[in-house]
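Hi C.,

You asked whether I'd gotten around to modeling the 313-residue construct. I have! Everything is below, sequence then structure, no commentary in between.
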Amino acid sequence: MVMSICGIIFSPLIALLSGILMLGLTRKFMARIHWRYGPPLLQPVIDIIKLFYQKAPSHGKLFDFGVILSLTGSIVVLLFLPVGKLAPLSSSGGLLVITYLTLIAPLGLALSGGEAANPNASIGISRKLVLSFGYEVSLLLGILAVMTRYETISIVKVVKIQQESGWALFSWPLLVSGIAYLLILPAILGIRPFDVVSAPQEISSGPHVEYGGKYLGISTISHALTEFIAIGLFVNLFLGGWGLWGVISGIGAGWLVVLLSVLAFLAKIFLLYIVCLLVSAVLPRLRLDQAVGFLWKWPAVLAFAGLILAWVV
């Protein structure tokens, strides 16, 4: 009971701090690659605090509701996603619930952007929906492959099985599904070469063009949580979650083990995020048709093949 309550409190908090740090790491990392010094890592924190002190006009109740819905959807997903050994609601539906709940955040973004009635926002929302249609099929097939292979819908059980049998990414046949997930991960994160939704040089940040003040601050927080969820789901499904080849899972229980599991989980997330940043730094932005064409070609084919292999093997 105490662990569940702590999980409800600390899981979103850990995800928020990590997501904001990832946003700061993005700007610092890209600046270093471009031979610039760049802003401090905590610059997103300063920006969010500043935004909440600024006044911004509202475009209606639906505009306000969409922003809150997007943030709420991300927070609810975190309660079902194991963060180390903190998994307060992971027994209530598992991967099936997570799959449905991940649709709430884009829906809230679409509602608020549509209410703003800005052409750039409408273009950004349409791009987001089309891009989502490109990668969500591969994402769903990858999740189905994991559930088929391990014969469970519980993400906690998936992590525990990997403690004994090894990480799914390095095991047959889930290697194919893991590669498919890695290929669509930049599209889920919205970074190059798939940053067609915001595209500041083309559509002035797209869905966020009418955001300002607290609305932009809430949107930034929601984006940080979304990035954490996307990578955290991959870590749990294919990299053994908090496990370090059975090291942490074999040293007993207690708050120290919980802390070590969270640190191990976060280490995997940040290492994988740096890999994504390296890809983003060297590739140009694709057009929407090129992005969807790629997503429907290699990741979708690999994800479907991974599902068939998981079922046959």
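If it helps when you're writing up: The longest helix spans residues 2-33.

Thanks,
B.
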